Amino acid sequence: MLRTGVYKGGERLPSVRQAAEEHGVSKNTMAEAYDRLVAEGLLEARVGSGYYVVYRDLAASNAPQPHIAEAADAVSLLASNWTNITRCGRATAGHLRHGWKRPNSASISKASRYPGRATSISVMAARAAMLLCGSACAFHCSIDRFQPNPTACCSRTAPITRWTSSSATWSNPATPSLSDDPGYYPLFGKLTLAKANIVGIRRCADGPDLEDLGVKLTTNRPKVFFTQSQAHNPTGSFLSPAIAFGLLQAAERGGFRLVEDDAFADILPSTLPRLAALDQLDRVLYVGTFSKTLSASLRSGFVAGHPSIISALSDIKMVTTIATSDFVERFIFNLIQGGQYLRHLRRLRARLEEANQEFPGGIAAIGLSVRASKVPGFYLWVELPDSLDELELCRAATAEGIFLAPGVAFRPHRLSAGRAAIRVNVAYGADPRFLAFLKRAVATSRG
Mean of the pLDDT values across residues 241-253? Predict the structure, then answer.
């Protein structure tokens, strides 16, 4: 009623007693409703007088900024995930539908029961369980390989952009940092913030292009290669054993380390090759997360690597953030320990498998090319015909309440390399309104 203008700014609302009678609820329920509106900044509570509407243009406040609607940069893309600008879902969104990732209410209630004060040993054991249960990657990992300091552990999920010790720096203006191309756009923003020199390595259907990597290594001496092994973001591609072995060989010859982002490990088969498993954390830094499989709001994950690297990362974490949320870590641990997380993953895998089977058919019927994926991940890479401008397509989609991001946004320097394309989230890709929009756009471009 507030949003539709039934009540005007400054107007006094009915009393709690009167409103409760009108809506057929208890006074406690009505008081709770008013308090929630006050908390949202929509109402003002005046002692002894009642509740009044705050002067706000609610319609205008919900309108997205132009740069967010057009996905102008990495910040815009990130902001779009938290901005309600669409009518039929965010086809390019980084996260799944809310109902897909959230465990049932009983599981949440049980996991939210905060345990009593624990010793540092039990906290370490909890985090060890998070690592071993939360990752499908089969590698040996003792405590000192991921959590040497209880107060500085459990790094958030984003790939590490910089680490420093007394003798080395991974990302700086003078040292190239390799990354998948196309790749994970928030990483590009973080590396740019660190003033790193980003060098893109072409991403193929079976992993990074070893030939392209070889060419780039003749003129660059990188310290690190950031890559995503399985269910690659944004292409949905996988990592074959041959390419994984070639990457490790190149890293050994070139003297650089590999940062393996395995954000989707918990929904993928454990038999798929991982760099960390082949390398046993000698030259590989392994990054895992619970944000993709549980909730984007649970910014908790883990980093596994050689003890010397973990020690340096923990020191930096202590200086920058001190520690992550102990409540969030225990909440996730309770879900794992109680079995709710495993049951949730089974439901999520089934939904993803169904979506990955349904979506390509709809795209193919339009006449577009979609890069097939051997693993049921979140994303697929849809290539566009030469007659269709991806930037114009995204602007037209925004006008119809559909958020898209151009493929160029997933390039290290936002430079086109190959055919125009868009990343599509399989959770939204089969939406009839989205497919109808693409069909009209393709037909119009072909005259």
Answer: 96
